[in-house]
Amino acid sequence: MNSQSKTPHLPGSGLYEKSRTVHNKRIDGPFRRFKWLVMLVTLGVYYGTPWLRWDRGPYAPDQAVLVDLANRRFYMFGIEIWPHEFYFVAGLLIMAGIGLFLLTSAVGRAWCGYSCPQTVWTDVFQHVDRFVDGDRNARIRLENAPWTWSKVLRRAFKWTIYLIIGFWTGGAWIMYFADAPTLVHDFWRGEAAPVAYITVAVLTLTTVTLGGFMREQVCIYMCPWPRIQTAMMDEKSLMVTYKDWRGEPRGSVKKAAKNPDQFGDCIDCTQCVQVCPTGIDIREGPQIGCITCALCIDACDRVMKDIGRPRGLIDYATLEDCEREAAGGETRPAWKALLRPRTIAYFLIWASIGMGLLFALGVRSHTDLTVSPDRNPPFMLMSDGSVRNSYTLKLRNMESRPRRMEIAVEGLAGATMWTDTIAREQAAATQEMEVPADETLTVRAYVQAPEGTPAGEFTFRMTSLDEQRETDTGSTRFDAPGGEQ
Amino acid sequence: MANERPDPKRIDEATGTNFVGHEWDGIEELDTPMPRWWLWTFYLTIVWALVYVVLYPAWPLIEKGTEGVLGWTSRGQLAQEMTAADQSRASVREQIAAIDIEELRGNPDLMRQAVAGGAAAFKVNCIQCHGSGAAGSQTLGYPNLNDDDWLWGGDLTAIQATLTHGIRQQGDDATRTSEMPPFDGVFSQGEMNALVDHVLSLSGKAKSSPVGAKIYADNCVICHGASGEGDRSVGGPKLADAIWLYGSTRADIARQIRSPRMGVMPKWDGRLDPVTIKMLAAYVHSLGGGEDFVETAETADEAEAVEVNEQSE
């Protein structure tokens, strides 16, 4: 193997390695175009989502996706999540996790190569570099050049663009937590909450640092995901592979023409190294620095086409396929690696969690009644000999309109009820109350039963007085002198 | 392999990195250098720690720790937060101070604030006798505040007056006072039994007799009423209901006739500010037995007494 292209970590070179800026060359090809598409979609979703509107009536915000921390509500289009339903969010996170497993077992580190925010933003910043300073060679020249005024101005210009991108990234983030148009207005007038400015400042800083300067260092040194993934890959996982049995030994086109059959297909043009956004040499074999963005495939295919050799010297392949091919077997299309028991199992788990969540979402109730008896004192003897118990009722209305609810005492003969807002004189076995839109109403309820009523269980029944007539019950205990009989 | 020490100066073919010299079953450790920025990050944390030690309390010494240039303390922060909380409550307290107590119920928001404030004050000042659930104690003779039986009235104004001036509080002219005379040795055992029977008969728990009815009519009616309905204007307890402050057994009742117990409630005027007393009244009223205010000559006097008192604060 050629040791020229390797990073020299020679003895005595020190404990610490100075980071080198990767100046990747521009390339065009199917994978690059796919990367453009993914970038367009992901950034579009990220920047655009807070601006989508969704009509929820007069009692709820009309932002399609909103994390309303102050009121503890999470809105996502037609779905509204309350804090007690946080398991939906947990379910989504589990789906995201298993989705990554699925993706890894099927297409290797595709997440890293195409849709990881670190990759997408690094790509954006690398394009800024290219826009300001030119392509690879120009950038290398500029980096090695002394700090002249022209270089200072260029750098200042570039870093200003970095800051603007960072600012827009942080600015878009806060839009998910408040009504976007209002927040933009308040933000520029200096009237937004301090946390908004702090968040934007922090995210501007992290975006510029991680995307503008750290780049591949994040993937290689900081991110746990490449480490986890190496444990999840097997001989059937798709990887970007340099087919060394076909490429080695390397030799230029001229040399190969002089000595046919002595050289492999690799002409050592190092295009694959020059286009790599993490600055690695894929010909050294699978390595943690490879995020499988497949830009080297684009670069190599183009060279192979130019010199009239078949494409795919560097290609997506599984280890199993590589071994078969190296032994002279057939080249198997890459998509065949997708369907196998492991990917199908991951997909089934992933899909069944999704179906479970959808089902739970479909059948969830929009009303709820919780009853908790006051235990201090457990019961109260009244002057006419009757017994009173008090309870804290929580009436939850998840609809975005106020609803009238009827509360009835069931299973306690002769009992009447009143509350902290309904006077004792109006005590009755059923009471009506209005629960505000999208709120939980806390009511202190008094239940009085005639003298001689034994202790025992009974039930509060809540019924919504509208066409839905949703009901919920809360079982509780009635305490009385002498206990149960 | 075990006896051979690998040469640490060797260089790994595949990566070009030199070996550390550690080897386990043929797997060797490479001396891959850490990135330089990692080192700078490490130095930055040290600088951060040094700055922190200077700015904030850090080193424990024998008497006390180093104080830090910023002068921050957790107690100081607590005091600051308490002051901020007091300030945020100030407007509510002002509103409660300004409103007439009987108008509180017409203002549900303010009433809720008053009840919450009263509940907090109750836990500090009142639960020693009345209990944390305000259920009192029959054995000790502390009244239950949850029920609908009131010796001195259960509307907001009356509760506020009781709180302000106390019951049988010495040195307060407006305090609530009643006295049950002791009848020890006045009645024979038979007469006593007949009287207890008559008292119990008022709530239908025993059969009355002419002897008992006569003794009751001669001695008790003036405060407790002909049918045991009590008299709030003099603090005469109701005898015809199911609630007994000092117990409902025959022995309890006989003992109360012979040598009566009479509880004392301290006045809170002077110890608690009028707003807190108002909030406490709202809380006690909210416990479930609160009554509506009915204007009478006496209640008017009470309201006036409270008002005079508030002005003297």
Please characterize this protein's 3D structure:
The complex is a heterodimer of chains A (485) and B (313). Chain A has 485 residues and is α+β, with helices and mostly antiparallel strands. Helix content of chain A is 41%, strand content 18%. In chain A, a hairpin with a 2-residue loop joins strand 3 and strand 4. Chain A is elongated, with a radius of gyration of 33 Å. With 313 residues, chain B is mostly helical. Helices cover 45% and strands 4% of the residues of chain B. Chain B has a two-stranded antiparallel sheet. The longest helix of chain B is centred in the N-terminal third of the chain and has 25 residues. The radius of gyration of chain B is 37 Å and the shape is elongated. Chains A and B meet through strand 1 and strand 8 of A and strand 3 and helix 1 of B.
Discrete helix count of chain B: 11
Number of helices of chain A: 16
| CATH level 3 topology of the domain at 89-176 and 264-312 in chain B | Cytochrome Bc1 Complex, Chain D, domain 2
- Runs of chain A in which pLDDT lies below 50 for 5 or more consecutive residues are 1-12
Strand content of chain B: under 5%
Gross morphology of chain B: elongated
Order of helices and strands of chain B: EEEHHHHHHHHHHH
The computed structural class of chain A is: alpha+beta
Largest sheet of chain B: 2 strands, antiparallel
Q: Which architecture of the domain at 89-176 and 264-312 in chain B would the CATH scheme give at its second level?
A: Orthogonal Bundle
Give the terminus-to-terminus CA distance of chain A: 92 Å
Helical content of chain A (DSSP H or I, runs of 4+): 40-55%
- Mean pLDDT score of chain B: 88
